[in-house]
Structures are given as structure tokens and as C-alpha cells.
Amino acid sequence: MHLRIKIILRSGLYIFLSAVGAALTATAAAKSFEPLHLQSPTLSRTQIAFSYGGEIWIVGRDGGEAQRLVTGSDRLIGPVFSPDGTLVAYSGNYSGNYDVYVVPAIGGDPRRLTYHPGDDIAIGWTRDGKNVLFTSRRASYSDAAQFFTMPLQGNPFPIELPLPMGSQGSFSPDGTHIAYVPFFQWEPYWRKYRGGQTTPIWIADLSDSSIVKIPRDNSNDKDPMWVGDTVYFLSDRNGPMTLFAYDLKSGQVSELVHNTGFDIISASAGPDGIVYDQFGSLHIYDFATHAEHEVHVRIAADMPQVQPHFEHVTADMIQGSGISPTGKRAVMEAQGQILTVPAEKGDFRNLTPGSGVANRSPAWSPDGKWVAWFSDESGEYQLHIGDEFGTNKIREIKLDEPPSFYYDISWSPDSQKISYSDKRLHLWYLNLTNGGPVEVDTDYYDEGPSPFNAKWSSDSRWLTYNRILPNMLHAVFAYSLPTGKTRQITDGMSDARYPVFDKGGK
After folding, report:
1. Omega before 402 cis (within 30°)?
2. CB burial class (10 A; 0-12, 13-18, 19+) of residue 325?
3. Which residues, in sequence order, are bridge partners of residue 339?
4. Nearest Cα to 171, choosing from 101, 225, 213, 120?
5. Furthest-apart CA atoms within the chain: distance in Å
């Protein structure tokens, strides 16, 4: 799907969004299966429910044409079938925060179960199908959520489980224990992550809150599913995230699906198998055959989310802004487009009137004639340079190999050179008049975006920056463009950052 953006000015800054899908005839659409971004599937004996486009959909276990179960216009997540498959619980954000809802699997009006001003996230059911299991921070003294169950009938208040925290969970068949992930992860899609956020799975006895830990070596384990005498779960302990099983009797962990591709994102157990999503497609692992197969799903429905509409550009949409040298205009990135707007009088200008392109990190040249930014229009990020009016052809400059992600455009005072950094911890400069990218230095450790704080001298012949040393302290360096040599300025015995040249460039 491509995104075409136009900008208009009418009592403020608005963008006109128009989603343009692939051109398919009705016949071709009816017979083919398009790649879809299907998420959070759940399994009953006959059906699969999942989220797509922020709405809840349902399809037979054999796949085919999916039907929309609940309309939410990008505000619904995480469907979970009841044990008998007659109800689907989900989390809906209809009024500013997520609450727990249930809807009949055959369709109908959703029924709201929780009414707290904080987020309540449905994650499962009690085994008798009379209560929905959800997480909430409503009673927490920290940023960790806790487990609650909400009855479908009778008691109008949720019941807190006797555990101090919990993120994902699945009850044992007799309901006396729960296999759970005790805390949430800030960066769940950081592949091969082995820092302090790695998530274990514990098994708690709800009578005394004692726990048993599923064996692991600092892996990311998630989505516990208790079936009989086995706790199934996802883990990246052998590489990409895939499906494992923990035998409660033997205490052994085994890999069920050998995965060398994309991570499995989420999984949910149901009658006779487990459904999971991998790279937006749905798969079922069959308990009887110990094999998995893909479930092909087709969606043919109106999607209000992708209809042309006006979008007000608010402050939280603006990134990478800057002021022109004259102070009369500002440049900014919004919704993947590079825009300039007047400080007082005049019109806005869109320098990147394309579609389906991510343009980012704009920077105005000191002479005021040019704006530089990074763009993935070619498929990989390159440097683009356009004039401030958006009238001339944009100059495209290919950067280093292999393709990378870039940060920190900084123009030299003579408007002829640009420095920038990349995700591989390199600092570069580029002479726009006669040459390609030149590597200046490489940082020692990854400190995230913008580690170098690079600044130019007034004569555009020197570049100063800071870099971390093996002793974990920062030192200031100066790089000479004419000689291509680097000089360490500070002794490295104390932390030194954010260097700048004086007005004389010395």
C-alpha cells in the first residue's frame, strides 16, 4: 500500500491522506491471497480470530474470506476466545483508554466489562469461561501491571490475583496455578536482545504465590500457553523467536518449530493446536501431527482507516524541525514529508510531494538555498538535497555500502559539505562539489542515535566531535579535512562532550 500526501493550509496546517492500494480486478482479488499484516490470533475449535487494521476479524480454521467481527477504526487489539469458543474478549479504546470487552463469536454488540481510567488489557480466560483475565496498573505502586479477573455475570468488580506483577498468563487446567511472564518488556522487537529486559516465564501456585521458573539462559520467553501437562511458549533461546514446550513432569524444554526466518510474534493455544503469526501471516501448529501449516486469509471489506481524509498536523507529529538562516521560515518532518512553513506571512511548501516514501531529518544550509534530508525513495536511505522553494529537481546522493540508517545532518558553514552518522557507529562527511562519503571515525560502543555531536569550524576545514574511549569516558577529537587526520584534544581521563569551535574556528 502506498501513501500519497498533499498539504493544505486552512486555519492551521493539515495534511490530506490518501491510501492507494495495488490495482486488482474484482476477479483477481477474489481468487488471490494478498500478504496481510494479521496480528494476535486466537483459536477455537472451528475458527480463528485476529486483529487487522485495529479491528477484530474472524475466519474458519481452514482460512479463506475473513469477516469483520468488531469495527473499531484502529482502536481494537488482542482478541481471545473463551474456552468454549462462543465469546471473544478483546481490548478496545473507544473513549481514550483501553478497557475489556466481550462479543459473541457469531457477531453482535460488544459488552464492556471494565471502566477504569487506566488501560485494562484482556489476555485470557479462567478455565470455566466465567471470567476474563486481564492486566492493569490500577492497583500498582510501580510501572508493572498486575493480574485481575473480571466476571461476566454477578460481581461488578475485578478480582486481583495474589501476585505482585504480571504481563502475560495462562491458567492450569484445574485453575490452581498460572504460567506467566512477570513483567513487560519496553523493547519487545529488539532481536537477540540479552539485556536487563529479557523476560522469563514463571509458574505460580495461586494458593501461596510460590513460583517455579522454566529453565532459561537469559532468553526472551513469552506467551505461555498451559495445555494438559505442558506449558507451550515462544522463545528466542535458539535464534529467531519460535515455539517451545516445557514438560511439567520431566522439567525438560524442547523446540517444536525450527525457525530460521522471521520471529514468531504472538501465539495462542486452542483445541488441538496453537495459532501464531509470523511476518503478518497465520500458522497453526497441530498437536497430533507435530507439524505446522500456513492459514491463507483474504480480506475484502471497506476500511475507513485508509479512506482519503484531512489530518491536522499537531505538535506530536512534527520531527526534525529547524529554522532557516533568515529566521523567516521553519523546516520540519511530518508524516514522512518535508515541509517548510512561514514564521509570519506566506504559504507552506511541501518539498517532497511523493507517495509511499519516508523522508526524515531535514536540515537547512547556512546560505539558505538548500534543504538536505534522508529519504528511502529508492528503497534504501540516501541523501536528498532540494532547493528551499521545492521547484527544482531533487539531487539524490548515494551514501555508503552496505545500506544503512543515518542520523545528524550537519552543514558546513560554506554550504558545500555535510557531516552525518550511521547505525554502524561511523561518522562521515560528504563534499557536495567533488567527492563521495569520507569516513571520519568509528565509535567504540553503541550509545544510540546522535553519539558524536559533530560541529564544523568556521572555515569548514575542521570537524570536531566526541567519541567514547575503551575506558567508557568520552574524549573530544578534531578532524582535518585537508589532511584526513584526526587529533585527540582531551586527555581521556575525564568525560568530555559537546565540543564547539570558537568564532574564529580555532
Report:
1. yes
2. middle
3. 332, 350
4. 225
5. 80
The string of pLDDT tens digits covering residues 52-69 is: 999 999 999 999 999 999
Q: Which of 83, 98, 68, 80 is nearest to 41 (CA)?
A: 80
Pair 458, 501: CB distance under 8 Å: yes
Q: What is the pLDDT of residue 456?
A: 97
Contacts of 431 (CB under 8 A, 6+ apart): 416, 417, 438
Asked if residues 256 and 285 have their Cβ atoms less than 8 Å apart, the reply is yes
CA distances from residue 341 to 13, 315, 336 in whole angstroms, order as listed: 9, 14, 16
pLDDT of residue 20: 38
Q: What b-and-e string marks burial along 378-403, b requiring 16 or more CB atoms within 10 Å of the CB?
A: eeebbbbbbebebeeebeeeebbeee
Q: Give 418's Cβ-side CA count (13 Å radius).
A: 27
Task: Report the C-alpha gap between 64 and 79 in whole angstroms.
Answer: 19
Alpha helices in 141-248 (DSSP H): none
Output the nine-digit C-alpha cell for 193.
536482545
- Cell numbers representing residue 303 in the block: 476500511
The residues of the chain scoring below 70 in pLDDT are 1-33, 73, 305-306, 308-311, 504-506
What confidence score (pLDDT) does residue 189 get?
86
Q: How far is CA 74 from the centre of its chain?
A: 15
pLDDT given at position 26: 35
CA distance 119 to 96: 9
Looking at residue 312, its pLDDT comes to 75
Q: H or E segment at 31?
A: helix 26-31
Residues with Cβ within 8 Å of residue 203, at least 6 apart in sequence? 177, 178, 179, 180, 211, 212, 213, 214, 231, 248
- Measured distance CA(83)–CA(60) in Å, rounded: 17
Q: What is the pTM of this model?
A: 0.73
CB-count exposure of residue 497 (10 Å: 0-12, 13-18, 19+): middle
**297-298 and 64-65: which strand pairing?**
parallel
Cell of 433: 562539489
Going by C-alpha positions, the residue among 202, 200, 203 that lies closest to residue 221 is 200
CB 214 within 8 A of CB 221: yes
Neighbours of 227 (CB within 10 A): 18
Nearest-angstrom CA–CA distance, 85 and 103: 11
